[in-house]
Amino acid sequence: MLSVCRSSLLMQGKFAFLAAMLFSVSLANAGDKAKEMKPYTEKIANTDVSFDMVPIPGGEFIMGSPANEKNREDDEGPQIKVKVDPFWMGKHEVTWNEYDIWSFNLDIQRRKLLRGKSDAKEKAADAVTRPTKPYTDMTFDMGHDGYPAICMTQLAAKTYCKWLSEKTGHYYRLPTEAEWEYACRAGTTTAYSFGDNPEKLDDYAWHYANCDDTYQKVGQKKPNPWGLYDMHGNVSEWVLDQYIPDAYKKWSGKGTLKFPINVPTTLYPRVAKGGSWDDEPEALRSANRIASSSDWKIQDPQIPQSIWYHTDAIMVGFRVVRPLKVPTAEERKKYGLDPAIPEDEGR
Amino acid sequence: MTQSNNQSTSRRDFLKTTTATAVGTGILASLGSAAHVHASGDDQIKVGLVGCGGRGTGAASQALSTKGNVKLEAMADAFKDRMDSSLSNLQKQFSGRPERVDVAEEKKFVGFDAYQKLLDSGVDVVILATPPGFRPIHFEAAVNKGVHIFMEKPVATDVTGVKKVLEAAKKAKEKNLAVGVGLQRHHQAPYIETIKRLKDGAIGDITSMRCYWNSGGVWEPRLAREDAKSEMEYQMRNWYYYNWLCGDHINEQHIHNIDVCNWLKDDFPVKAYGMGGRQVRTDKKYGEIFDHFAVEFVYADDTRMYSQCRHIRNCWNSVTEHAQGTKGSCDISGAKYETDAGYKWKYRGKKANPYQVEHDDLFAAIYNGTPYNEAEYGAKSTMTSILGRLATYSGKPVTWDEAMASNVDLMPKEFSWEATPVTVPDENGFYPIPTPGVSKVL
């Protein structure tokens, strides 16, 4: 993850320029500009950390699984047709190296040590809420550098995205459930992005039978057709949606859906996708939906429980997306894209 | 060549969990017709909470989630705002069973003597969850009053406090009072099963143990000095950073891991060597505690326990315990071991919330009149942590016996908002920090 290849480093400046160009054009041209979307590496200022983004072309796909898919569950259907706008998606799950910058103010600490000045972006990023410190170590001794960050609440993942947006000047957020599945399938219609045979899973994914009871460094298995790593397995990934078991039933019969999302209204359950190191193959299928629950925080001994940590969700992480068309403030509000930190957050 | 029992199908059952099975919404179980022994002589157990922070509130919630007819009736805290927010949080938690949280105005007590007023108000069980410095005083008073007790770990911050708790623990036994201590690993099935196997010789004789609480640290100071009305209020609000209140992080957090090693060893160390300091968390707002300790504890049979605790961000973090035996090694916290012969074992059984189980166990003992007293090992594991701190602060070996023979008392002589704590800052707001090789600790 951290060993960014030379060529991508060289091209980084070029893409930053390209990105700036993209946002200066009118949105009517976004469709044309989508063709010019390129992979890029984003460096996090005042750190040595960077991460890679992969372009995901806009298009249509069938969300959910067919009734005859093996181990399929009721909440995955009926299948619905969805149109997805182009976006970039993190090539890898967000790692501790990235995540801890935000949670532990490592950028601020380093800036102070180097007596650096903060520019407008840094000031805006500093102003974003950062989490309280975890009571205990949230890696659970499974590894840090290059390993996926875990145990964060969906709110924490969303707030990280907000911070990252301010920090980089590019708009980042969690994917919607539909965007995630679209990116995971990468044009395929099979149970996994490599086909239907779970026996091939070892080439593509860390799951219960091959992981030795722990998550693994990101990016070691084969990517999916669109160049995304660990979409199946390693850690499950937060998406933006509330988990509604019959969501697809409610959506079906309404033609091709544009930007379907179940805006969260209650804390539980919300959706994670992709299955994890702690799961059996069926949970890693593209269409599988995982619902969060209060059990994910069962070992948090405090009341109120932390809004930032899921002490027992040692199988949940996330990855970021960057939509080509940046949503307006109204859209962000309408779709619940921004983190909403409870007013009585006292800890 | 490795044998494995990984065939068990127990997995996280998170998938498709659509209903929140919140702790605290369990069904009130029928108690049957057995005679129940507790102070008030009827079925209902009246609980009082002393110390209404996040953990105290959590402990109250767990007590109220046990099977019996339990009711929170009285609360006490030094600060009214803490008590009010705790009560409102508990009312939220128990909105489905409001009869469980029924605290009348006259049963809310504020101030340094609130604990005594609460005890005098007539409760059956008291939860002691203030900062640990107060625990010995509160525990002693609760035992004198003859109520059952749940107290959070650690149970003291200095040797004088430990001795007080050991004394009171004896008295509690004589009075047949149930005493639970918040070292919840003792109620955690994976730990119980692993320790049992190790004691049965799964990896041979234990030759050494390692344990860690390395993390990024805890909460930032909550109140600035200029916003505090007095030094006493300032230290009380920011209690983690002051030794008389917290005992440093080796005592407040790392005790869990140290206690596990003691549990496995069925003994307590006779001596400690330590080193540590204050490398990163140096601002005056961080009071007087260290940010790292490395301690080597020695047991009577010369077995060693190597312990580390650290509060420094972005380092190797681990909160674990491990044992080395003559025939293999064990990750105790991971509930797995491997023998030199290649046999691998990992706990695959049920996991329950240990914070709930410790209360379930305590309240079951109260109902059944079963002897139940965790105070002694709680006090001795607290003492082990303190021994590590003394060795680290002084930079010299300290034995259990010489520490226990001392009378160093960190507690203020007077408890009021105007009273002066034992350590006070200099004119620039910095506290005296122990210096290994220089500081006298006993």
From TrEMBL, chain A:
Keywords: Kinase, Signal, Transferase
E.C. designation(s): 2.7.11.1
InterPro entries referenced in this protein's UniProt entry, alphabetically: CTDL_fold, Sulfatase_Mod_Factor_Kinase, SUMF_dom, SUMF_sf
Signal peptide: 1-30
Protein name: Serine/threonine-protein kinase pkn1
Residues in Sulfatase-modifying factor enzyme-like domain copies: 52-297
The species this protein was found in: Gimesia fumaroli
GO molecular function, one term: formylglycine-generating oxidase activity
UniProtKB/TrEMBL annotation, chain B:
Gene Ontology molecular functions: inositol 2-dehydrogenase (NAD+) activity; nucleotide binding
EC nos: 1.1.1.18
Enzyme class (EC, first level): oxidoreductase
Domain of life the protein comes from: Bacteria
Domain Gfo/Idh/MocA-like oxidoreductase N-terminal: 45-179
UniProt keyword annotations, A-Z: Oxidoreductase
Protein name: Inositol 2-dehydrogenase
Originating gene: iolG_9
